[in-house]
Specification:
Layout lengths: L2 H11 L15 E4 L7 H13 L3 E5 L1 E2 L4 E2 L12 H11 E2 L4 E11 L5 E11 L8 E2 L14 E4 L2 E4 L2 H29 L6 E3 L4 E3 L5 E3 L2 H10 L36 H4 L2 E2 H8 L3 H10 L9 E5 L5 E5 L1 H15 L2 H22 L1
Parallel strand pairs: 1-2
Antiparallel strand pairs: 2-7, 3-4, 5-8, 6-7, 9-10, 11-12, 12-13, 14-16, 15-16
Helix pairs in contact: 2-3, 7-8, 8-10
């Protein structure tokens, strides 16, 4: 059981004699009766508001008035495609939000003494490392305008007010200043030129030897969040230095050129945005990306981890230019394009049959 599931269970465990929940919606909790993919923009707005505050949960399967556990009535949440969901919310808001989700059953005893299992789903959004999370595309249904910043106020997700935006700006400034002071102190105390600098934004490690090494920035973020002191002590050749022990395997894969800068800038397009730029359907885009093996080249593609089990695919300007050229070539060869579509569709069917 994850810590997030434990928290959600705790929220739902405190009930009145009539079965209604004692817990109310708050800065960190919102209840939904059901999950519907059509409401993705609504969920994204709430998630952005959480990310700009202290993080929080959307709990599905709970009726708000009166507050009672009813459980999810269909498999919509079970069938949530995390990659597609990530692409959808990241097409609305940027930078990308760090989120997780899960599902579990909770036993409830009805008035006649019958024990029933109710299915509960949850989405957790972490507090953003780099605030604010900003709307980058309008959505008429949720009245989202490009440039909007949402914040969680009590039990509502609203446009941010001056006081909270001011705190975010001050927090960013203070964090940058504190980071520089710590860095200067480390340099001063090291008494050596053999130092490297880790850029947590792009995962790049700059060394004094003219060779730079880079890790996926999401990996760096995960290490920073999840690394714990498992033993407070020191190495035998040092005095009083806390030890962080890293367990598990680090796979050293192919050596590839790492794009300079923030991946959100070097690879700005999710697949949906790329299809819109090229004025083609997403299915045609998937076929072209597969046919030209673009996901194998970091020049064109990066896979970004956005939750514990969810990833999103980002593409560069090089990818956009490359596909524009290929589409121009295929304009005079419609039969070849049809062949690419058919080959991709047949391959997709075979994979589904193999997995089914």
């Amino acid at each position: 059981m994850t810590s997030h599931e434990e928290y959600v269970r705790k929220v739902l465990s405190s009930r009145n004699p009539n079965g209604t929940l004692k817990s109310r919606e708050s800065n960190t909790v919102e209840f939904k009766e059901s999950f519907n993919k059509a409401n993705t923009a609504k969920y994204a707005k709430t998630m952005a508001a959480y990310a700009n505050n202290r993080g929080g949960y959307i709990i599905f399967g709970v009726k708000d008035t009166p507050r009672s556990i009813i459980g999810l009535k269909n498999n919509n949440f079970d069938n949530l495609n995390q990659e597609q969901f990530s692409e959808a919310i990241n097409s609305l808001f940027a930078p990308a939000m760090d989120w997780d989700c899960g599902i579990f059953s909770i036993e409830m005893t009805s008035a006649d003494g019958e024990i029933k299992n109710h299915k509960i789903g949850w989405i957790y959004t972490a507090e953003a490392e780099y605030k604010p999370i900003i709307a980058q595309k309008a959505n008429d249904g949720e009245k989202i305008v490009s440039g909007d910043v949402y914040y969680r106020y009590r039990a509502r997700s609203e446009k941010i007010k001056f006081a909270e935006m001011s705190r975010i700006i001050e927090g960013r400034t203070a964090k940058a200043r504190e980071g520089l002071l710590k860095l200067f102190e480390v340099i001063r105390e090291s008494k050596t030129a053999n130092l490297g600098i880790v850029n947590y934004t792009n995962g790049k490690i700059t060394t004094p030897y003219g060779v730079d090494v880079a890790f996926d920035r999401k990996l760096v973020t995960q290490v920073l969040k999840k690394a714990k002191f498992i033993k407070e002590g020191s190495f035998h050749e040092t005095e009083g230095i806390p030890v962080i022990k890293v367990t598990g395997n680090i796979d050293l894969a192919e050596e590839v050129p790492v794009p300079e800068g923030n991946p959100d800038e070097t690879h700005p397009y999710i697949q949906k945005q790329l299809a819109e730029k090229l004025n083609i359907s997403t299915q045609d885009l998937y076929a072209l990306i597969w046919y030209y093996k673009m996901k194998e080249a970091k020049k064109y593609h990066l896979e970004i981890t956005v939750s514990r089990s969810g990833k999103t695919h980002k593409f560069s300007e090089f990818a956009l230019q490359f596909l524009r050229e290929k589409l121009k070539e295929l304009e005079d060869k419609p039969d070849e394009f049809d062949k690419i579509r058919k080959t991709y569709k047949d391959r997709d069917k075979k994979e589904k049959q193999a997995n089914g």
